[in-house]
Design goal:
Blueprint (H helix, E strand, L loop, with lengths): L3 H7 L12 E5 L2 E6 L2 H10 L7 E4 L1
Length: 59
């Protein structure tokens, strides 16, 4: 289970605390996107400028 303090420190800038069960896209050790589903988290990462395909994890 991820440490909530680490997730909070890694969340995308300008975002609030991730909701329980929200999906986080992670690339190069940092959260680059978030969404209600894995696809939405990857899409959010792409919209934020992430060119790689991030790993997606549930918050």
């Amino acid at each position: 289970e991820p440490d909530p303090a680490i997730l909070g420190a890694l969340r995308p800038s300008g975002a609030t605390e991730p909701a329980q069960g929200e999906w986080l896209a992670v690339a190069d050790g940092r959260v680059v996107g978030a969404g209600a589903s894995p696809g939405r988290a990857r899409r959010d990462a792409r919209l934020r400028g992430c060119d790689s395909v991030p790993v997606v994890r549930r918050a």
